[in-house]
Structure formats: C-alpha cells, structure tokens
Amino acid sequence: MTIQEEKQKCFATIEQYNNALSTCVEQNNITALQETYQIRDKLIHDFFNKYASELSEGDRIFFEKLKAFDAELAIEMKKEKNTILGDLSSRKKMQSGINNYQRISKDK
To answer: Total structural domains in the chain?
Structure first.
C-alpha cells in the first residue's frame, strides 16, 4: 500500500469518527462524545507522528475541514450546555418555591 493510500485510509477512519461525534451530539450522549473525541484525537496524533514529514496540500485541506467541523460541533455543544444549565436553573427555582411553600404550610 502506498503512503497516499495509507493516508486516505486514515482520513476515512477519522471521517467515521466525525460521523459518530455528530450522532453523539444529536443524541445528547456526552459520555460517548468524550470517548469518541479521545479516540479520534489519538488517530490524528498518530497520523501526524507517522506522516509529519510527508504532508501534502490535500492533507492540509482535510485538516482545515476538520477544524471547521470541530468549530461547528463546539457551537452545538455550547447551545446544548446553555439549554441544560437553563433547565437546571429553572428546576432549582421551582424546588426553592416548593420548599418555601412547604415551610409556610408547616407554619400554619
């Protein structure tokens, strides 16, 4: 197998992990998201260790697209975080109200 074929195989594997990351975000599966990120990051690290001296323009373009993908994913994750924190804040306020109501009802 040529170096270019090996690189393409690595790119295909990284793309599969990108698809898995997208699925994790869609399903709000944070644990799987973290695990998948770690695996994909190791693949990228291994790729650069192996092919650092043989990077081409095509490789640079692939990783620019990967960088854009990660930026989009970060935006989606931030939206989800804000939603979760908003829900948590509402729940805390509701629990506080319930506790106050229970305290008032015990006083009577």
So the answer is: 1
